[in-house]
Every structure is written in structure tokens, then in C-alpha cells.
Design goal:
Blueprint (H helix, E strand, L loop, with lengths): L31 H46 L8 H4 L10 E6 L11 E3 L3 H12 L7 E4 L2 E5 L2 E10 L12 E5 L2 E9 L2 E4 L4 E3 L3 E3 L2 E7 L1 E5 L2 E3 L2 E5 L3 E5 L2 E3 L2 E2 L3 E6 L2 E3 L5 E7 L2 E3 L2 E7 L7 E3 L2 E7 L7 E3 L2 E4 L6 E3 L3
Parallel strand pairs: 1-2, 1-3, 3-5, 4-6, 5-7, 6-8, 7-9, 7-10, 8-11, 9-11, 10-13, 11-14, 12-15, 13-16, 14-17, 15-18, 16-19, 18-20, 19-21, 20-22, 21-23, 22-24, 23-25, 24-26, 25-27
């Protein structure tokens, strides 16, 4: 319904004469009561009714918008219920995509009424069910694993999904979420708040943000990782598998393993390493703790500052690295700036 507009026709009576005092004689031949009515006629008979009509139209419209928005939000963001589950297997026949799904496992005491998808102890069946659900998530959709241990094979997201748990297992006294992987993550945008391990010793992950995770054996299965963030993770075991990490942030992690970082233009700060090899250029490496830091062949234009460790060394051809203000023994290296280390 369109809002009311006041037109010239609204300002005239049924005989075409102007309402109000317009067109009256200089000395109108009206009684006091009639004159008062004429003065207020347009306001009372035209403006106020039009305003009230528009308010009613607006309130009706506002109510419809809120209801439509509520239906839109609940339809697109709500979790899957038990009655919806068949839609995941047949999305082309009336199925819908939901932005978030909740995963539980019977071994942790969850029931079908608690979660959207309930998993059991069969790795293959669990993975097939999850991959079917992943394939119908929108890009950037979220999968939340409730506390418990999950037996899984490959998780092939394919839609840059966000994987979240209920905390790392054993951290803070809670059970947390534990993914026992016998395979890899593929096309995962972010992994948060859980523990990942693997029967094979490594979990292959194709590029992801990691936050508040414990990963027991990490194999980064990608040629280039770019614009990622690793923050506040515990990495137990490192299998490499990546050629370059670029334009990323590695902050506040604990690496309980020897690690090689093929890095270009990254911020690497406030981490705890054992032995770390840095190969690359234009990195800021600051305020880390380590046993040894080795700048590998062809490393150049890095800033190494504020770190604490036993040894900082160089191997092969390195140049224009600035190593300043660190605590620990620093190898002398021509073509690099080394100063104020203790």
C-alpha cells in the first residue's frame, strides 16, 4: 500500500471551494465558532487524517518487514532438525542449505534430539555423512562439533567451511572436542577450539586458519598458503608439506617439534619454538622463544628482533637481514646487520 500524499484536491470541499481561510473575505461573515473551525480545518480534516493513515501504513509495513526478516533469518541460519535430515541426501528435491550444523557423537552421550547430525563409531559412515552435509553448506558455512571424540576419515569440505569445537581436549579441565582423523581436511577455511590427531601420525590440511587448537602431527598439503592466521595453537609434530607461507600471521603458538618455515612477508611473533629454520624474505620475526633459529640459504631482508634463544645462525648465502636486540648467541654473517644482541 502506498503512503498518502496530500494533493490540491484534498484542500477543497465537494463544491471546489478552498478549505480553511483561503479565499475568505477580509471580514468573513462567520460566527466565532465557524471561524475557529475554518482556521483549524485543514489541520484537523486533511493533515491529521493523512498522517494517521501513513502511520498505520508504516506500522503495517514495519511488522511485515520484521516478520519477513525473521522468516528469512530462521530459514537460512537455523540448525537442522531431525525432520530435516533427509534433505541433506536429496538437496535437489526440495532440500535447503543451512549456514550452521551441530555435530554430536553417541559415545559422548549426545542424542539425536541434542544435535543436527549424530555420529557413531564407524569412521567411513561418519565421514560419508559429514561430507554429504558439507556439500550442501553455503560458502563459509560453519560446522560445530560438540564435546567428545570423533572417529573420521577424510573431510572434504569443498566450500571453505569453518570447523569449530568446544575447546581443546584436556584444556581447562573440560572434555573438549577431539577429532581422531585418518585422512585430511580439504578446503577448510578455519579450524578453531579443538584437538586433532591421526592414526598415521600426520593430518593433511589444505590451507586453513588455526586458532586455539592442538594438532598432533601437521602436514600442510598445499603449495602456497596465503593470508592465513595461526594463533594460540599447540603443534606436536610437523611434517611440512608446504612450499611457501605468504602474507600471514603466526602468533602465540607453541611448536613442540622442529619446524621449517618457508616464509615471505609474514609476521611471526610471540611463539615458542624448539629448533626453527626460516627460509624466505621480508618477515618480521619478533619476541619469540626458541632453542635455535637458523636463517637458511637465500634468506634476505628479514627483521629478527626481541627474540630469546640459545643460538641464531646462518647457512648458505644470506643478505640484508637485520638481527638486532635479541638475547642469545648470534653467528657473525657478512652482508647482514647484526647489532645489540646479548
Amino acid at each position: 500500500m502506498r503512503m498518502k500524499r496530500i494533493t490540491d484536491a484534498d484542500l477543497r470541499d465537494e463544491n471546489g471551494f478552498h478549505l480553511g481561510v483561503k479565499g475568505q473575505d477580509d471580514i468573513p461573515g462567520l460566527t466565532t465558532q465557524e471561524m475557529q473551525h475554518k482556521v483549524e480545518e485543514i489541520a484537523r480534516d486533511v493533515i491529521i487524517p493523512a498522517i494517521n493513515e501513513n502511520v498505520e501504513i508504516f506500522e503495517t509495513f514495519e511488522t511485515r518487514v520484521v516478520e519477513d526478516l525473521h522468516l528469512h533469518v530462521t530459514d537460512n541460519v537455523r540448525h537442522i532438525t531431525v525432520s530435516d535430515r533427509e534433505r541433506w541426501d536429496n538437496p535437489t528435491s526440495g532440500g535447503k542449505r543451512y549456514a550452521t550444523i551441530i555435530i554430536g557423537t553417541a559415545s559422548a552421550g549426545h542424542t539425536a534430539n541434542d544435535v543436527d547430525i549424530l555420529l557413531g563409531n564407524d569412521r567411513m559412515a561418519n565421514s560419508q555423512l559429514l561430507n554429504s552435509a558439507f556439500s550442501n553448506l553455503p560458502v563459509g558455512g560453519k560446522v560445530i562439533f560438540r564435546e567428545g571424540r570423533y572417529l573420521l576419515n577424510n573431510l572434504l569440505s569443498g566450500r571453505s567451511s569453518i570447523i569449530e569445537g568446544m575447546g581443546r581436549e584436556g584444556i581447562g579441565g573440560g572434555r573438549g572436542t577431539f577429532l581422531d582423523m585418518n585422512g585430511r581436511f580439504d578446503s577448510v577455511a578455519a579450524v578453531k577450539d579443538l584437538t586433532i590427531t591421526s592414526d598415521s601420525g600426520t593430518t593433511a590440511i589444505t590451507g586453513a586458519h588455526f586458532e586455539n587448537c592442538t594438532i598432533n602431527g601437521l602436514l600442510l598439503q598445499a603449495g602456497i598458503l596465503e593470508n592465513i592466521v595461526w594463533e594460540n595453537n599447540i603443534i606436536n609434530g610437523w611434517a611440512g608439506g608446504v612450499l611457501t607461507i605468504r602474507n600471514s600471521k603466526i602468533i602465540g603458538n607453541t611448536f613442540n617439534t622442529n619446524i621449517t618455515l618457508p616464509s615471505i612477508d609474514n609476521i611471526i611473533s610471540n611463539n615458542r619454538f624448539t629448533n626453527v629454520t626460516l627460509s624466505g624474505a621480508y618477515n618480521m620475526v619478533a619476541n619469540n622463544r626458541f632453542t635455535t633459529l637458523l636463517l637458511a640459504n637465500n634468506s634476505h631482508s628479514n627483521i629478527i628482533t626481541g627474540n630469546r634463544g640459545s643460538d641464531i645462525g646462518f647457512t648458505g648465502n644470506t643478505w640484508q637481514n637485520i638481527v638486532i636486540g635479541n638475547r642469545g648467541s648470534v653467528m657473525d654473517a657478512p652482508s647482514n646487520t647484526i647489532a645489540l644482541n646479548t
